Structures are given as structure tokens and as C-alpha cells.
Amino acid sequence: MNKSTAVKTPLEELRRWMANRHLDALYLTRPVSIAYVTGFFAEPHERLMGLAVRAERATLVVPALERQKASERAENADVVAWRDGEDPYALVAEALRGAVEVGVEKEHLSLLAAEVITARTAVAELIDVGGEVRRLRLTKTDSEIDKLDRAAAITDAATEHVLSRLRAGQTEADVAFVIGSVIGELGGTLSFPSLVQSGPNSALPHLEPSNRKLGHGDLVLLDFGAAFAGYKADTTRIAVVGEPSEKQREIHRIVLEAHDAAIAAVRPGVTAGDVDAAARRVIEAAGHGESFFHRVGHGIGLEGHEDPSLDPGSRTVLQPGMVFTIEPGVYLPGFGGVRIEDDVVVVDGGCRVLTKADRTLRVI
């Protein structure tokens, strides 16, 4: 079904890639890549953190304030730490000693860091390994899917708790606070800052929660997710304050039909563009094509947005083990917006929907 039948770990897969290209080492710097390979995640901000992979060993360089956590959680890597005021590149140079050709994540490694490494080591050529890391992360193992299932279950439970607590007079910021609190009570953490948009604000897909109060007749869009063991869920549900108008019901019906059409299109061998087209045809046939101006979905896992990207026309072929969102939407300025989002995993013959909370237009 997916990579669960393979015995190689991400570190072993990267070493095989490294050997096939006759590289002496890899030097990973994206925190999410380090987490994928070692199980240790930290956001170092301006401080240096990197994973040097050699044929026989791996060295994780971390700021001293992350030493204990890294020592407890990082697998298959020796942890070395530097204190503020010390030179972290001395540890990097030691970990890369003697390496000439090194794979790096060119989209993340800064030009300054590249210059320091080549000036202070024998490294003469930097080869991009970023694409290979993304390829490995593209399909999920059974262990990863188990964590995504757990994140989805927490998100579903939180959805019902939050919707049951919605009241006219609450601010968008109030509701966002409730979402975070409920997810914490259920054993998760926030996947990303929650989006709560009411009334005309719901037509602005990424508008942050404001002090606007929920009022009679407002559509209320809730876009949030729980994370479990680093793996993230992402859903969107719609409510309305008071009885919905015919137009609100109609827009919700169109978007739900598009959502269901996209999910029905998901199976191994089709393209991401095919899935986007399935949703887009429904919305265009209803006369709202111009109001659906984003892709139908994006990958999820250790990041809230990762590969695959389900863009219009994308030729990415779906494979078992890929996990992504399905989230068509219609946004009408001054009126409001409707988006319905769920997480799915591609399986043999189709897909399995991970998030299962009620998708009806909830009346509050």
C-alpha cells in the first residue's frame, strides 16, 4: 500500500542516495528535514542547527539550549552543542572533515553559510539534496499515517466541541482561543495559527482572526487543525449565526458537491490536476468559477503545507501513501466565503478520508 513494507529508514535512504552520487557527506539544515531523519524537531531561529550525514555516522549540531531535548529524542545521530558566543561552524567543520562533495538543501542553506563551509573545510562542490528529501517525504509510512490519523481524530473531536460553543457576540479572536484550548485538552497542539473569519471576512481566505464579533446572519469559517507527534491535520468547517439564507445554503451546497467530487476522483494513477479539475468543474458549472481562485489542496505531514500541491493542471501522479487536503471554496466579496476541507490518504483503488467531522452548514 505504501512505504510501510520498506525496511529502510530515511537516514538509510539518504545514505543510499549519497552513495549512488559518490558524495562524501550530506549537510541538512531545514528543521523539518532534520525532524524527518532523526525524530528531533526544534526551531533554532537565528542560531545554527544542522545534521551532517557521513557513510558511517551522523552528527547533529544544535544550540546548547536544545542539547538535552536533542539527546533524548534524536535517533541515529550523535549530538554536539555550541553555546552562545562560541563558533558553531567549528563543529560543522569537524563533522564535515575531509568531505569534498557534499549534498545540501540549496533552497534553505544561505549563501553566507555556504561560503563559510567552503572556506573552512575541504568542501569544493555543493549538490542539492532537497529534492530527494521531498521525494522521500512525499509518501507516508504506516507509522506516519497512524500519527496523522490521531491528529485527525483530535481535530474531529475539537470541531464538535468548538461548534457547540459558538455564540453570537463572540469575537473571532475569542473563538480562535477556544480552538487552541480545546485541542490542548484533547492531547494535541495547534498545527498552525487557527483562522476564524465571520461575515464578509470569510471571503478573505487567509485573514487572521480579528476583534469582529459574530453577528446574526454571518457565515463563520473555521480553518484549523491539531498536530500529534509533529504530524498535522488541517480542516475547514462552516457555520452560520441564525437561520441561513437561501444564498448561503446554495453556496454551501455547491462547495460540498465540489469537495465530494474531488474526493471521488482521488486514486493512484490520476494526476493532482485531475483532482483539482473534478472540483473546479462543479463550481464552474454553478457559475462561480472566478470565485474559486486557489488550488484544491496541498500535502500535509510534518508541515501544514508540503508536497504534493494539487494545482490546476498539475501532472504529479498520485501514489498510495500520499496525504493531502481537499478544500474547494467560493468567496464572494461583501457576502462571505465557504470552504470545506478534509484530509485524505491515497490507498489502492481510491482514498481514505482521515477527517470525518460533520460537513453540514452548522446553525448557531
Largest sheet data: 6 strands, mixed
- Please identify the structural class as seen in this structure: alpha+beta
- H-E order: HEHEEHEHEHEHHHEEEEEEHHEEEEEEEE
CATH topology of the largest domain: Creatine Amidinohydrolase
The amount of beta strand, in percent, is 15-25%
The total beta strand count reads: 20
Number of helices: 10
Helix content estimate: 25-40%
- Span of the ends, CA to CA: 41 Å
Tell me, what is the CATH class of the largest domain?
Alpha Beta
Total discrete domains: 2
Overall geometric form: elongated
Unreliable stretches: 1-5
Strand order of the largest sheet: 4-3-2-1-5-6
- Summarize model confidence as the mean pLDDT: 97
What radius of gyration results from the CA coordinates?
Answer: 23 Å
The CATH architecture of the largest domain can be named as Alpha-Beta Complex
In short:
This protein is of the alpha+beta class.
Structure commentary:
This protein has helices spanning 10-20, 31-38, 67-73, 88-95, 111-120, 130-138, 142-165, 172-185, 246-265, 272-285, and strands at 25-28, 50-53, 58-63, 78-82, 101-104, 125-128, 189-190, 195-198, 219-224, 226-228, 231-232, 235-240, 297-299, 306-310, 323-326, 329-332, 336-339, 342-347, 350-353, 362-363. Helix 7 packs across helix 8 and helix 9 packs antiparallel against helix 10. Helices cover 34% and strands 23% of the residues. It is elongated, with a radius of gyration of 23 Å. Residues 1-5 have low confidence and may be disordered. A six-stranded mixed β-sheet has the order 4-3-2-1-5-6, sandwiched between helices. It has a four-stranded mixed β-sheet with strand order 8-9-12-20, covered by helices on one side. A three-stranded antiparallel β-sheet has the order 7-10-11. It folds into two domains: 3-137, 3-Layer(aba) Sandwich (Creatine Amidinohydrolase, Chain A, domain 1), CATH 3.40.350; 142-363, Creatine Amidinohydrolase (Alpha-Beta Complex). The protein is α+β, with helices and mostly antiparallel strands and 364 residues long. It is built from ten helices and 20 strands.
